């Protein structure tokens, strides 16, 4: 153990190793959840699994309103103490002399970690299968000032290998560059009638349960792509075929959520996007949300699917409009808003049944909050619209102009805070997370 620790210390001064249990240490609940989700995803890509029933968390010196920790939307069991290195660690920060002695000896190996490890507020204990090993990772001295957090790495037992074989995964330590070196620029899009979902899966083996994370660096933003859907399977396949590699070249940590409206009630795009936002946040603390129509495919990967300081409209032009903006103030098709921006405007309205009006309502909400819409350059923000006839059940909303006139007085009452629905199923095939919901008016 001493020899291995010394080897690691020489290779990476910001890395230390302990034995027995997997522990994630962070200063906030959000950091714990983010690091836990990263490790769950990284391990599951290698055939391992985090046991939800055996995962516990403890808040050291808990302050009022510290909240709960979630794993895949489910609350993690909270404890007042747990066994670590064979001794009991308590929520008041106390631990037995033996564990202090062993930890202090290990801390001597890495002074950078020792300065702030015991200032963390959360200790999250994971048990993965039978064999586990702990990595406590801090940042380099230049990063300590800005991040002040400790993350850990672990090995776990694979289902198809010997019980004693272990795999160690390290967290990325460097941010991805502001401009990805993988970008290609404008691309010629193809929509092959013979394309199958199996082929798309084969081309995107790095995607698991609709989620992807770059291995070479730490993504600058965590992005949830929300796609409202009903009876557009071919369009969805074409979009997934182009969108997955498009996002991977941008070196994003992302997940694609399909929000499927069940039944034959009139389509409600806006409400489905509200649901997607609420459901996605149950899985992960996403920074940025892309609200994406299923029939629009981006042509240029310099059109970054990342959020800005202001709400961003990504469809400046498309083939069906001669690559010109549809009209002044257009805010539909594909838009990007941060978690805070979308919450500030109370999301979309829930009352727009049928086609049209909901994107203009969202733009008005943005303006009412003193924000403005920004757009990428016109030669970059270009899309191909996959041709289709008007869907049955998505007829033009003849009531949209009246509803728009009520936005200034209704936006606080109609939105995320009034979004009611019934979740029928949540499925996780390889390429996306499919959430099927019932939003029929007579259901609520």
What does this structure look like?
It contains twelve helices and 23 strands. The chain is an alpha+beta fold. Strand 14 (222-229), helix 7 (233-249) and strand 15 (253-261) form a beta-alpha-beta unit. The radius of gyration is 24 Å and the shape is globular. The model is unreliable at 1-20 and 111-169 (pLDDT under 50).
Structural category is: alpha+beta
Strand content: 15-25%
Largest sheet: 8 strands, mixed
The overall pLDDT, averaged over residues, is 79
Number of helices: 12
Evaluate the radius of gyration. 24 Å
Q: How far apart, in Å, are the first and last alpha carbons?
A: 60 Å
Helix content: 25-40%
Uncertain stretches of 5 or more adjacent residues: 1-20, 111-169
Tell me the total number of β-strands: 23
Anisotropy-based shape: globular
EC number: 2.4.1.-
GO molecular function: metal ion binding; N-acetyllactosamine synthase activity
Membrane topology: Single-pass type II membrane protein
Function: Responsible for the synthesis of complex-type N-linked oligosaccharides in many glycoproteins as well as the carbohydrate moieties of glycolipids.
């Amino acid at each position: 153990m001493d020899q291995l620790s010394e080897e690691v210390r020489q290779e990476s001064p910001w890395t230390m190793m302990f034995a027995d249990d997997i522990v994630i240490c962070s200063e906030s609940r959000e950091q714990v959840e983010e690091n836990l989700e990263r490790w769950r995803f990284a391990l599951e890509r290698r055939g391992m699994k985090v046991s939800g029933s055996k995962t516990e968390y403890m808040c050291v010196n808990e302050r009022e309103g510290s909240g709960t920790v979630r794993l895949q939307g489910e609350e993690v069991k909270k404890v007042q103490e747990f066994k670590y290195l064979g001794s009991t660690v308590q929520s008041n920060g106390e631990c037995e002399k033996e564990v202090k002695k062993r930890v202090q000896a290990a801390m001597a190996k890495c002074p950078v970690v020792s300065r702030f490890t015991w200032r963390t507020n959360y200790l999250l204990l994971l048990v993965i299968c039978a064999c586990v090993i702990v990595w406590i990772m801090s940042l380099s001295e230049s990063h300590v000032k800005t991040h002040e957090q400790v993350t850990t790495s672990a090995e776990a037992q694979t289902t198809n290998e010997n019980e004693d074989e272990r795999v160690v995964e390290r967290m990325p330590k460097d941010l991805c560059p502001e401009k990805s070196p993988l970008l290609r620029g404008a691309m010629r899009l193809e929509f092959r009638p013979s394309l199958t979902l199996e082929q798309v899966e084969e081309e995107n083996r790095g995607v698991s349960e609709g989620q992807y994370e770059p291995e070479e660096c730490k993504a600058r933003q965590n992005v949830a792509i929300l796609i409202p859907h009903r009876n557009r399977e071919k369009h969805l396949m074409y979009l997934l075929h182009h969108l997955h590699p498009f996002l991977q070249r941008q070196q994003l940590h992302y997940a694609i959520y399909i929000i499927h409206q069940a039944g034959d009630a009139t389509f409600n795009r806006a409400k489905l996007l509200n649901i997607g936002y609420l459901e996605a946040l149950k899985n992960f603390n996403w920074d940025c949300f892309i609200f994406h129509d299923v029939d629009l495919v981006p042509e240029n990967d310099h059109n970054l699917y990342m959020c800005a300081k202001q709400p961003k409209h990504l469809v400046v032009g498309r083939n069906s409009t001669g690559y010109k903006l549809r009209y002044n103030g257009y805010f539909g098709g594909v838009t990007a808003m941060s978690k805070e921006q979308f919450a500030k405007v109370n999301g979309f309205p829930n009352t727009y049944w049928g086609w049209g009006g909901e994107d203009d309502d969202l733009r008005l909400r943005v303006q009412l909050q003193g924000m403005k819409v920004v757009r990428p350059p016109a030669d970059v923000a270009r899309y191909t619209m996959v041709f289709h006839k008007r869907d049955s059940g998505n007829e033009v909303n003849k009531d949209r102009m009246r509803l728009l006139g009520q936005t200034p007085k209704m936006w606080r009452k109609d939105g995320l805070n009034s979004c009611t629905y019934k979740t029928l199923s949540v499925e996780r095939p390889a390429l996306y997370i499919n959430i099927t919901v019932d939003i029929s008016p007579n259901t609520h």
